[in-house]
Amino acid sequence: MRKLSLSIALTGALLLAACGGESSSSDTTAASAAGTGNECTVGKTPEANTLTIGTGNPAYSPWVDNDAPESKEGFEAAVAYAVAAELGFADTAVKWVRTGFDEAIQPGVKNFDFNLQQYTITDERKKTVSFSDSYYTTNQAVVALKGSPAIGATTVAAMKDVKFGAQAGTTSLDFITNVIKPSTEPYVYDDNAGAKAALEAKQIDAVVVDLPTAFYIAAAELTDASVVGQFPANLSTTPDNFGFVFDLNNELVGCVNTALATLKDNGTLATIEKTWLSDKTNAPVFAAE
Amino acid sequence: MSASLSRRAAYERTRKRRSIAVATVSSLTVVAAIVLFVPRMPRWDRVKESFFSGERFADSFPRLLEAFVLDIKIFAWSTPAIVILALLVAIARNSRSAALFPVRVLTIAYTDIMRGVPVILSIYLIGFGVPGLGLERPWNSPLLWGSVALVLTYASYVAEVFRAGIESIHESQRAAARSLGLSNWQTMRFVVLPQAIRRVVPPLMNDMVSLQKDVALVSLIGPIEILRQAGVDKSKFANFTPYVVAAVIFLMMTIPLTRTTDYLLERERRRTTGTRVR
């Protein structure tokens, strides 16, 4: 048996040696070239002098226009570059990576510094990932095609018998089951494309999405569709606050929060919101009863 | 026979003991390596929390079990349809009459195309496309058309299994049946099919195990079944444990089915072959 235990010990030592090298590289040299981060970010980005930002694959309007975040067009693209600038990163020092939702929440080492694709900040999610402070707050909204029973509804109660659809992995689904409580189970799709096909096939009467997305799909993706209304924030169990997603306990969170606070104080965030979202967010508000 | 062992029996016994010992030691080594060293990996705590959270497991289990009922339903109504359609296709393809030539061509095209097309595409195309033509509720139900897509895909595989079974029946059987005065159809019905189906039951079970898992693909077009519910829970808590729960529930179904398949295979082997060589 001695031979056996020796081999186990050896294997173990090798495994540990192979996988143990996770050092916090906070002792990296302090001086960094211009446009490659400020004193807060030094040593906190895995790729030195570069800020790596994750977004969806594909990324949708109005968050990222034309699936091209590098263009700075679209709300989240613009916010990302504003935060990067605040952190001292020049545009050329920003690198984009594409991830699905799952890739951003998996337990392994992340390939981005932070990821923004309309992640709602919730306490449950905070157990496995870290969030920045909120950069946008939105309401849930209903989109329906002409002729749908949802059209003309002004109260939540009037939509009990509407067949709803939502995108999997969004808080919209939670909202349907916990707030609207319709008489039939909602259908769930991987993305807006599925929900759109189901609307057109009349398998569902209406979809619930966040308000800016609602306006986008009603205007650009569907014909004969309209935003029936938005739900008041006080109906939600958790308000829809979007935050950047970080690896759990990532040291960069503090730097980003400072940057976001500055952008809120000096009005930059409001300007970006006005440019990309605000003019599209006037929809009637549903009453509860 | 005396009580003492023959030299051969004694030799076999030592060999057997030896192989049991080797198997035990190697199994223990593997288990020990996993139990002792995986938790020492630097991010094991994170993986444990993400995939094996006891709290999330307990929370998701009842919800997922409830969602699994839909999977069982789809499986239950699709299976008979698959078997019937597959049998018809297999018989049509095996028809010998010259007048049925176009039917044979059609069945060949059907099996070739449906086996080659990804199940996902056929579910999207049939599940969204057909109702999109303007059917009204309840006839545009994604459950209905999703099931149709599954049936069409699986029937093409199962038809090939049936065809293989039919073709494995020796031509002399047909010749004998025909010379006794049975018609073409009677030959198929009373002589070929009973033998053919018996032969293909084990491989058919294999397709059923596979169908059990593919049923979850119907969730792509809306209905919330176990895998979708697991995905919803996953997003809600940013935790993958619900998928582990789903896997456990699936295994509770598939393991008995695969064991049964193995048993049937073994029984068929024993029935058709001689003594086992050790």
Structure write-up:
- The complex is a heterodimer of chains A (289) and B (278).
- With 289 residues, chain A is of the alpha/beta class.
- Chain A is 30% helix and 19% strand.
- Chain A contains eight helices and ten strands.
- In chain A, strands 7-6-8-5-9 form a five-stranded mixed beta sheet.
- In chain A, strand 1, helix 2 (75-86) and strand 2 form a beta-alpha-beta unit.
- The N and C termini of chain A lie far apart (75 Å).
- Chain B is mainly α and 278 residues long.
- In chain B, 79% of the residues lie in helices and 0% in strands.
- Chain B is built from ten helices and no strands.
- Chain B has helices at 7-37, 44-51, 54-93, 101-116, 119-132, 142-167, 171-179, 184-214, 226-237, 241-272.
- The interface between A and B is large, with 44 and 41 residues.
Keywords:
heterodimer, A: 289 residues, alpha/beta, D-Maltodextrin-Binding Protein, domain 2, 2 domains, five-stranded mixed beta sheet, three-stranded parallel beta sheet, disordered N terminus, B: 278 residues, mainly alpha, MetI-like fold, 10 helices
- Architecture of the largest domain in chain A in CATH? 3-Layer(aba) Sandwich
CATH homologous superfamily identity of one domain in chain B: MetI-like
Counted up, domains of chain A total 2
Ranges of chain A with pLDDT <50 over ≥5 residues? 1-32
How confident is the prediction overall: mean pLDDT of chain B?
Answer: 89
**Biggest sheet layout of chain A:** 5 strands, mixed
Query: Assembly type of the shown chains?
Result: heterodimer
The CATH topology of one domain in chain B comes to MetI-like fold
- Give the overall average pLDDT of chain A: 83
Helix content of chain A: 25-40%
- Rg value of chain B: 26 Å
Task: Supply the CATH architecture of one domain in chain B.
Answer: Orthogonal Bundle
Identify the overall geometry of chain B. Answer: flat
